[in-house]
TrEMBL record, chain A:
Cited Pfam families: TusA (PF01206)
GO MF annotations in UniProt: transferase activity
Ranges for domain UPF0033: 15-39
Xref: PROSITE patterns: UPF0033
Key words of the record: Transferase
Protein's organism: Prolixibacter denitrificans
Name of the molecule in the record: Preprotein translocase subunit TatB
Keyword NADP on entry: no
Family per record: Belongs to the sulfur carrier protein TusA family.
TrEMBL record, chain B:
Protein name: Peroxiredoxin
Classification via InterPro entries: DsrEFH-like (IPR027396), Sulphur_relay_DsrE/F-like (IPR003787)
Short name of one Pfam family: DsrE
Domain of life: Bacteria
Length: 83, 140
């Protein structure tokens, strides 16, 4: 998915985990994805460098779709579609 | 069937307990079943009065940096060690078993002597059996 397409996504749920370090964002993502339904999109905001690899890996393992990551200034947004 | 992890938690030092908590969180996010066997020093950390007061725990390595470690955790908004265990228990099937002998060494013989996160007091054979059957086994 291109950056333009990702930026245009209206996520069904936004999780702002910028205040936490690993494993905070993963934990927040794990909890929040339970609150959306299959096919819905979740956006995770984080400034924790390790999370950039961690959440896509976790999501793929759990059969969710990792749609991509968008860099912002000082943080990034990870887009996931729930399995 | 979910994957299983067993952890022999020997350490009662705040740095290792924090690391154990982070690993545990990863396993919980992965929906693993986890059995933690709390051994010697670990049993003291789970004693009710010690669990309630992190200042009663020391560092395993670089003891002179304890304050810097605690300050950094606070600044990074990282939970106190026990909260990792609490959160993991909320997320997945995590059981905390305390070694009976270890508890006795620290004057904690009954369930009410331990923090409420502890599930039971067990003997060594239960730990060995669980470790044999698990997919991941750690000693911390």
């Amino acid at each position: 998915m291109s950056q333009e397409e990702l930026v245009a996504i209206q996520a069904d749920k936004v999780v702002d985990a910028r205040g936490t370090a690993c494993p905070g964002p993963l934990l927040a993502a794990k909890k929040a994805i339970a609150e959306i339904t299959s096919g819905q999109v979740m956006e995770v905001l984080s400034a924790d460098e390790g999370t950039k690899k961690d959440i896509p890996k976790w999501a793929t393992k759990k059969n969710h779709e990792y749609m991509g990551t968008v860099e912002e200034s000082g943080f990034f947004k990870i887009y996931l579609r729930k399995a | 069937m979910p994957k299983r992890m067993t952890m022999a938690l020997f350490s009662g030092s705040i740095d290792k307990l924090t690391a154990a908590g982070v690993v545990l969180t990863g396993a919980a996010a992965d929906d693993m079943d986890v059995d933690i066997y709390v051994l010697l020093q670990g049993a003291r950390a789970f004693r009710k009065d010690v669990a309630a007061d992190a200042t009663k725990l020391e560092m395993a390595e670089n003891p002179q940096l304890k304050q810097e470690f605690l300050d950094s955790l606070k600044k990074l908004n990282v939970n106190p060690w026990l909260e990792f265990f609490r959160e993991a228990k909320e997320l997945t099937n995590v059981k905390i078993h305390v070694c009976g002998l270890a508890g006795k060494i620290w004057g904690a013989e009954k369930m009410e002597d331990f923090n409420e996160l502890v599930d039971d007091i067990v003997g060594i054979s239960e730990y060995i059996t669980a470790a044999q059957e698990s997919d991941v086994h750690l000693f911390i």
